[in-house]
């Protein structure tokens, strides 16, 4: 490493003079030619003063503060591990990058005026109305959406291809010879302060399109409620009581599928012998269900981690919004009947 003495030897001045010049000592009386010669030698040797080195170290060690903004209540998050896994991915990646992630806000009980203005960025998990984000943008500059992409021209986002993921489930059932395939799912909701705006779930939209194209669509075989385990139980019970069950069901979340399994078991309807099931998400409980679930794997923790990486990239200066689409895959277990 270059020292002051090295610069002094090449500049033909004393080390004290070099030190005072490099530290901008205004009380030093020295010829401008000598001052410039010292600066030129220091630059050629890539010498940096202590204050410059300290600034560089401080810059490298800067700690960013990140908040998480959720559309789920704690009870909803615990009942559906899908969103919990995304949040854990955010927290794990922040920890690995040395980012502070201690601020967690839930839209149902947060006062937007009390959001910490010192946050460097916010990870938004779920479908939250952009009007809420516009209010928050008065306090916080950088946002990344995870599991939603409201406007790819304005916001960074991480999501997956719902159409491809739905086709993975349906194609698997078609390949096994099933034709009459029912659907159990819930409504999607965009959350704003104090209310939800419900709309058709993408999985249902693509299920319906596919079944219509194959002339196999039957509205009597679709059952829609909320994305909870108890609703999966209720909707399957409704399907059983209605009679004329389809050969298989595509169920839009693993918790709903587990509730549906319970309803079938209580009525001694065997899975997959009497009816096949494929579901969606591949949360950890799917492999431990009473009949392990064949399901579409969504890399939820990766989605959370990727959101943090996009935010870090923004904080380092990137200006163009990016939308990342993570891949999905099908996990075959016993519930679809392929292992019989």
UniProtKB/TrEMBL annotation:
Residues 2-54 form the HTH lacI-type domain. Keywords: DNA-binding, Transcription, Transcription regulation. InterPro entries: HTH_LacI, LacI/GalR-like_sensor, Lambda_DNA-bd_dom_sf, Peripla_BP_I. It comes from the Bacteria. SMART domains: HTH_LACI. One of its GO terms (molecular function) is DNA-binding transcription factor activity. Pfam families: LacI, Peripla_BP_3. This is HTH-type transcriptional regulator msmR. It comes from Gracilibacillus halophilus YIM-C55.5. The lineage of its organism: Bacteria, Bacillati, Bacillota, Bacilli, Bacillales.
